[in-house]
Amino acid sequence: QVQPVESGGGLVQAGGSLRLSCVASGSIFSIMVMGWYRQAPGQQRELVGTITGGGSTNYADSKKGRFTISRDNAKSTVYLQMASLKPEDTAVYYCRIISPFNSWGQGTRVTVSS
């Protein structure tokens, strides 16, 4: 079973931008429905948004506007572009294969300093 692998986390100042990447190797990547989630310290994991194989996206209401999910099927990669970051965006960000099977990555930590 394929496990997605996230990268791109780190420390960024408030107001800055960051792009996370998630690689999910496999010949069926182009049909995978993928999702980005995050878990802030002491909080439950929450959905950021999802993207279908064809590139259709859906975002949690609170994430619309500053977060953009995209994918490059040729590279088996999904991206999460984050802009105007705030300290409350500090979290571990997880990539998930939602369909055709469920698989979570290990997460990448994003810290936004004020």
Provide an overview of this structure:
With 114 residues, this protein is mainly beta. It is 0% helix and 51% strand. It has strands at residues 5-7, 10-13, 18-23, 33-39, 46-51, 57-59, 67-72, 77-82, 91-99, 103-104, 108-113. The chain is globular, with a radius of gyration of 13 Å.
Strand-helix topology:
Blueprint: E1 5-7, E2 10-13, E3 18-23, E4 33-39, E5 46-51, E6 57-59, E7 67-72, E8 77-82, E9 91-99, E10 103-104, E11 108-113
Parallel strand pairs: 2-11
Antiparallel strand pairs: 1-3, 3-8, 4-5, 4-9, 5-6, 7-8, 9-10, 9-11
**Percent of residues in β-strands:** over 45%
Order of helices and strands: EEEEEEEEEEE
Distance between the termini: 40 Å
- Average pLDDT: 96
Structural class: mainly beta
Low-confidence stretches: none
Biggest sheet descriptor: 7 strands, mixed
Number of helices, counting only DSSP H or I runs of 4 residues or more? 0
Q: Tell me how many strands there are.
A: 11
Approximately how much helix is present in the residues?
Answer: under 10%
Shape: globular
The radius of gyration computed from the alpha-carbon positions, rounded to a whole number of angstroms, is 13 Å
Q: What is this structure, in a nutshell?
A:
This protein has 114 residues and is mainly beta.
Defining traits:
114 residues; mainly beta; seven-stranded mixed sheet; 0% helix
